[in-house]
Structures are given as C-alpha cells and as structure tokens.
Predict the structure of Farnesyl diphosphate synthase.
Amino acid sequence: MSAAFQDWMKTIQAGMENDMSAYLPAASALPQKLHDAMRYALLGGGKRVRPLLVYAAGNLFGADAAALSRAAAALEMIHAYSLVHDDMPCMDDDALRRGKPTVHIAYDEATALLVGDALQAQAFAVLAEADTLPPARQVAMLRLLAQAAGSAGMCGGQAIDLASVGLSLTLEQLEQMHQLKTGALLRASVVLGALAGKDLDAAELQALNDYSRAIGLAFQVVDDILDATADSATLGKTAGKDAADNKPTYVSILGLEPSQALAEKLRLEAHAALAPFGDNAQRLRELADLIVQRKA
Amino acid sequence: MSAAFQDWMKTIQAGMENDMSAYLPAASALPQKLHDAMRYALLGGGKRVRPLLVYAAGNLFGADAAALSRAAAALEMIHAYSLVHDDMPCMDDDALRRGKPTVHIAYDEATALLVGDALQAQAFAVLAEADTLPPARQVAMLRLLAQAAGSAGMCGGQAIDLASVGLSLTLEQLEQMHQLKTGALLRASVVLGALAGKDLDAAELQALNDYSRAIGLAFQVVDDILDATADSATLGKTAGKDAADNKPTYVSILGLEPSQALAEKLRLEAHAALAPFGDNAQRLRELADLIVQRKA
C-alpha cells in the first residue's frame, strides 16, 4: 500500500466521520435515546469500505465532492443498519461488533430494531437531499440504492443466508447468496460513485459491474478466510462464528489454500475490468488490493 | 357516507391490491420465503387509509394516475413494514393483525425483521421508479417520504411511544408522540398525493398541513376510543391492548366522552382547512369524516 493511498483513505475516513455526524440528528434531539443509539451504530468505527469505493469510483469522472459525500453516507447507513439488525438475537445473536457491544446489548432490542429502521430511512433522506446533482441522475441513484438494499439485493441475501444454515451449498449457490448479501451494496457503491460524476454508457456500466462482481466475491472469500484464521480482537467481532453457526463458507467448501488462490484470482480480474479507465481508476485498483490483502 | 364515495374507495382499494402485487417480486422469486412473507404482510387486508389520502389529495390538482399509484403503494409499504416490526416480541409482541396471525407468528422472527427491512427499501424503489413525474418533483417526494419515515417522523414516534409506557404523559406530549408516530406518514400521504399533481405554493402546503394535522390527531383519538370500546373481532387486532400495556391514551387522559368531542372538533378543523380548494377537496372531506366515524 502506497503512502499516498493510505493518506487518501485516512482523509476520506475522517471526512466521512464528520459528514455522517452532520447528516444525523444531534444526540440531544428528541427522541434522545434513538438518536444517541443511531450515532453509536454509525459513527466511530468501521473500515468504511463502501464510502471508499464511492470516492474511488467518483475519481473516474471527477465527481462533485458534496454528492460523493452524500452517496457514501447513504451506503454506509444502509450497511450500518444491516449490521445492527443482523446482530439481533433473532438473527445472528452477536454481542460484539467493531470491538464494541452491539446495539441491542448496549441499548435494548426494541431500540436496535428502530435504529436500523431509522438509519435506512435516513440513508434515503441524505441522498434525496443531494441538491448538487441533476435530479434525473439523483432519481437513478436513489432507485439503485433501493434496489440494492431490498429483497433483490442485501435483504434477499440475508434471507438466503438464514435459510442456508446447516445446508451444504454448492460453490455456485454460495456465490449467489453473497452477490446479494454483500455484493449488491458494494456494486451500488461503485456505480453510485461513478453516477455522482456523470451518466454512464453501457460499456462503462459493464466494466464497473465486472469490477464490482470481482471485489464483491473477493471481499467475502477473504471474510471467510479471516473468520477461520484470525482472532476476535483483530477482527473486532466474534471470530470462528461461521463454523460455530454451521454456515457454509468458502473455506469450508474449498479449503483454506484454494480460497486464498481464489481471492488472488479475483483481485486480478478486478484490475482487468478497470483497464478502460486508465490512470483514473488507480484508487479502485488499490481498493481491490486492500480488500484481498487486509488482515481484519 | 355517499354511495359515490364508497364506490370510489372500493375502486382504489381494489386497484391498490393489484398494483401493489405488481410492485412486489413474485412469491416464486428467490428467496421465496421472504417474498411470500412480504406479500402476506402487504396484501389482502387493511383499510388503505394512506393510499386513499394520496388519491384524494391527487384529486385536488388532477394528478397522473401512475404517479398516484406508486406514491400510494410506497406509503402503504412503509406503513405495512412498521406494523410488522411493531408487532414483534421486542416491541408490542402482538399475535393478531388485520384478523390474521402477525408475520413473526405466521413465519418467524428473523423473517419478520427482514420483511420489514425489505418493504421499506421497496417503498423507495417503487417511488423512485415513477417515471411519469418530473425528476425534481420526484426527488422532493422521495425526500419527504424518507423524512416522514425516519427518526424525525414515524420511527421517532415509535421510540417516544416505547419510552412512554407506564408514564403519565400530558395531552401535549401525547399529541407530539402521535404527530410523529402516525401523523408524519398521514401528512406525507396528503402532500405526496398533491405533489403528484403539481409543485405546491406556500399557502397550499399550509392548508394541507393543517388538514393533515387535524386528521392525524383525529385518527389517533378514534383509535384510542375504539381500543377502549370495540372488540378484537371487529378491530381485527387485539382490543384493550393499550390499557393492558399501561400506555397513555386520549381516553385514559381525557375520558371517553371528551375524546369523542375532540374527534368531532378535529373533523371540523379538517374541513375548515380545505376551504381554499373548493369542490376538488370533496374526497379529502369525506376521508376526514370516515376517519372520525369509522367503527374499526
């Protein structure tokens, strides 16, 4: 990782922390407990992979900074709400997230439910308030976000994930599940970032879809590798959870070394997809590297 | 209630059933259990008060039918998701809704959580796909829907409601809670219906806000009256639940007869607010009457 890339990441991560705080009601605004818990769920942690993808894709076409910030915040809010609901007792029942107690532990279950619901609404509000965008493109971005978040995207992937506990999935079924559960939102991050710059032609959209598919799968393969090999303190969440929950993973289906080889292959596919964009795609390339080479 | 008004309602209710079915993925689409449960939660019941308000307000300015259908469906999806989550064990823990087992009873808790999450996303998708609207007005409608659904609207009202169990609220605090919990979405229904017709000037918006405030409160006052006086079979949900849950209501604070007088006063206020719109507001007037005079 180059120092320039690390500086770029830190700048965006710090900027997002400020911007997302400003896009949420103050912790003192009524109802206080809900707003306090929304801030707890969204701020102060996380790798901000989706915002980084938004900004990196924004670099392709010189997108407006205000629009990128709102698109990035909207995606991170959807992601954060999904983690809050996913950690609840009726789903994964997890007590630790980003090194902190999960929302239903730190507050209570009803608050966790409402925090997730309100963060999803806030995501759409923040993007709908992006008044520097041409309205027609803004509508397209809102549509894409909604589709990626819903039953044909993230929520659908969660449902398949739930239904697959204890089953032996094929590699193809596992990929399908992850393309919805994680991939849809990662793809939306890339495409929304690009759309913050300009309308996309078919070839541009195809290249971005190919890149997104590769990093989406790579992200999940590496998650599975880390879940099997790293410890909870490093991950900031409970390690070994998938095996304990009897969930199918790349490591359980392919084994560890073939999973590592697959991640590397997907990294190269991501690079190849970016060829048409030349130097403007440098940050997207570095993010593909980061996703595959990360340790947590 | 005139026969013409009843026919109008039936036409819209039947039309919404068809349209909302078409706006949801098929029950056979993967993941099937989630899509089946989404249809169970949204279709086949309910008074469709929010869609009726959308269409009635659309009458003010001759709004396009396709845009009204999408706005109405979006509002009903937000409403339906809030009921699914509200009925869950960590919230109101209710087993009966619209005369049927609630979603977490008919399916399971994890599915109920995902159904609510996916219906919220679908609401924004359906409205974002309303391609007969001028994009700038469509963005304004999406913004308004998101604000009404979030922590400064419905979710915020739910949080205040949860926090108020067992407390003795003043009439003012009770009104504030309901203006968020129910009022925000009813107001959004009226304003979105009008916006499906044209941009609103300040006087029009003020008149619609006044109408919405009156019917929003009237709706809740009548809900409290019915909860105290009707039986579960008539209501299609558990009667006497508020008293059993030790929740403050208009009836518990004001008494039954003063609550009935308040509902009638609010009905007249709703009528007065509509004066500037003349005959085009007939359906909105009839809906105010319906909200106050309903028996379930």
